[in-house]
Predict the 3D structure of the following.
Amino acid sequence: MNEKTLLPQPEAAVTVLDISPNAGDHAALVEIFQHSNWILATCRTCAEAIAYLKRKMVPVIVCERDLPDGGWQDILERTTRAAKPPALIVTSRLADERLWADVLDRGGYNVLLKPYQPLEVLRDIGLAWQQWRWGRERPRTAGGAG
């Protein structure tokens, strides 16, 4: 049996947002997603991503650890206010236990090491999407923030 058939993925197209200033990262994900139902949207900065997320909801975000105008923490802070926040996967060439612990402690989903390993990427995105899909919406606060 093909390993790819065992990976969780949607039956219809689902958008994943990649936030990275590196065009090579975007190209690698496009290549990895080519025979799947994952569609890639890309942003190069926190500001672009925040503007995008105001217009569209995505279940999974893949975010470079460091961005030209901030980092993954800024994206996580902005998205956790949503009624159903997206799962955040942080990427880095220098991923270590400290980064992984920080991401998980703050509410991120996981850390992916670069260069990307296709099966690892598809597995993590699929599992993050399933968690998002099955997760419950957070109750809105009295102030209506969300």
The CA atoms of residues 84 and 135 lie 8 Å apart.
